[in-house]
């Protein structure tokens, strides 16, 4: 049987070999023919022969790519890291540093991590598409306030996202799929990533006036005029507090005026809350604008970040909340958010959200967090005063009172591109080219060096 089979087999193999080689020859000639035709076509078009590079070719399929520029904010750190100077100072990215110039992990974060590690019942399973349920509830409560009617009425759909950036992006994609109006108005200036996030999220970006360089303050009238001229239903991006990069926030009265206009015109507010508690040191005071809008019963979106206020930068933890008219709508909104998230990154990471949920759900940890947060905010405010005093002491030309009037992580100094380049080249001080300084990166020891640099830059290039 074996022999018969094997001989039958070898006969079939020979037959199939033959047919394979016939097929192989046919394919070979077909490929040569196609190649010749496409090369002729190419030669006709371009006057010379060009092959499309493929994976097997010596030439890369990505040969045509140009070197992309560094990110305007994160690229400052790249340049800083390359500088060997011992006096170098990074005031580019908004990242909190201690008086010793070191990054800070909050004590409460360490404590929460200890608790998480000790709890052997915890796994590293996938979490739901919309994130940890407990984290979502607590995040919404943090921004909307204890006893918020919107939460009580179950009108808030929340999804844990990859921090502020991810929440904005998920929000943008959700709106571009499900909202009638695709135009979003952003302030001038704003965080440099905003227009990119919204464009790629499928929205069309327009701007409204915000900062007036003549007064170093809010261009309130310009803002209202531009929002008044916006098409009905347009989305409006609002910085909840500590506007980046200007450090200029509307007053409570101005917020009320903005709210009335937005509601009157039927515009849709989208809050970016990246600095709650970090601006004034009070979580409630920094949520004022959001709560004002939610208090009128209308709808809005909120992108929340725990990067700064819990120092969880690299853990990438934040949330998108959509406040809706009714519980029924909120349930549907959440179901649709999951459809946006699943093909993007499936579900969010577990660790950072577990830290936040642990802190927010424990009375003691929560209290200790508010104390640490206040210390960070106060240190930044004291840096403002020290820098202002140092410039006054040097008699640096100009009115520098905006340094102490502005709020949050940044001072929008008014220094121009050339002055910034000069400070980097001569003083090894790194900041974004728009003259924004991260006050959180300063310390009492480095203030004099920065003041010397600003003084020299203003005298030389003022
Ligand atoms: N929204 C605003 C207004 C921000 O300033 C930032 C961060 C974010 C959202 C996003 O931060 P997250 O994704 O880490 O939560 N802005 C920083 C960092 C601090 C950066 O550019 O990424 C800045 O230096 O402007």
From TrEMBL:
Domain Aminotransferase class I/classII large positions: 88-454
Keyword Transferase: yes
One BP annotation, GO: amino acid metabolic process
One Gene Ontology cellular component annotation held by this UniProt entry: mitochondrion
Entry EC no(s): 2.6.1.1
Domain of life: Eukaryota
Family in the record: Belongs to the class-I pyridoxal-phosphate-dependent aminotransferase family.
Protein name stated in the entry: Aspartate aminotransferase
Species this protein is from: Picea sitchensis (Sitka spruce)
């Amino acid at each position: 049987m074996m022999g018969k089979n094997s001989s039958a087999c070898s006969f079939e193999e020979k037959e199939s070999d033959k047919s394979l080689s016939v097929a192989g020859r046919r394919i070979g000639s077909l490929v040569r023919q196609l190649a010749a035709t496409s090369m002729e076509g190419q030669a006709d078009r371009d006057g010379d022969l060009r092959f499309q590079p493929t994976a097997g070719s010596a030439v890369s399929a990505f040969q045509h790519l140009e070197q992309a520029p560094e990110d305007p904010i994160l690229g400052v750190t790249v340049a800083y890291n390359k500088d060997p100077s011992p006096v170098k100072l990074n005031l580019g990215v908004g990242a909190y540093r201690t008086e010793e110039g070191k990054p800070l992990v909050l004590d409460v974060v360490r404590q929460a991590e200890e608790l998480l590690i000790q709890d052997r019942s915890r796994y590293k399973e996938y979490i739901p598409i919309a994130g940890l349920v407990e984290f979502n509830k607590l995040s919404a409560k943090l921004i909307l306030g204890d006893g918020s009617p919107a939460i009580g009425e179950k009108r808030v759909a929340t999804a844990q996202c990859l921090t502020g950036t991810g929440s904005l992006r998920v929000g943008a994609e959700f709106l571009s799929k499900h909202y009638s109006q695709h135009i979003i108005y952003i302030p001038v200036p704003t965080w440099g990533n905003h227009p990119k996030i919204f464009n790629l999220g499928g929205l069309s970006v327009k701007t409204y006036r915000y900062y007036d360089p003549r007064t170093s303050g809010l261009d309130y009238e310009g803002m209202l005029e531009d929002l008044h001229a916006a098409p009905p239903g347009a989305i409006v991006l609002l910085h909840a507090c500590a506007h980046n990069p200007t450090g200029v926030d509307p007053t409570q009265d101005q917020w009320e005026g903005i709210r009335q206009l937005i509601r009157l015109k039927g515009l849709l507010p989208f809050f970016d809350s990246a600095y709650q508690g970090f601006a004034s040191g009070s979580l409630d005071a920094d949520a004022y604008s959001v709560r004002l809008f939610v208090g009128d019963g209308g709808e809005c979106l909120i992108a929340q970040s725990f990067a700064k206020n819990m120092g969880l930068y690299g853990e990438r933890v934040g949330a998108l909340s959509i406040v809706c008219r009714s519980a029924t709508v909120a349930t549907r909104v959440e179901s649709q958010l999951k459809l946006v998230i699943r093909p993007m990154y499936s579900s969010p990471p577990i660790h950072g959200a577990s830290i936040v949920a642990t802190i927010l759900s424990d009375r003691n940890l929560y209290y200790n967090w508010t104390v640490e947060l206040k210390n960070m905010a106060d240190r930044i405010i004291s840096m403002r005063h020290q820098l202002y005093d140092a410039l006054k002491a040097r008699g640096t030309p100009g009115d520098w009172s905006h340094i102490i009037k502005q709020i949050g992580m940044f001072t929008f100094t008014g220094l121009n591109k050339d002055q910034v380049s000069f400070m980097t080249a001569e003083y090894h001080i790194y900041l974004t080219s728009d003259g924004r300084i991260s006050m959180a990166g300063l310390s009492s020891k480095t203030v004099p060096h920065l003041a010397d640099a600003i003084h020299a830059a203003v005298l030389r290039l003022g």
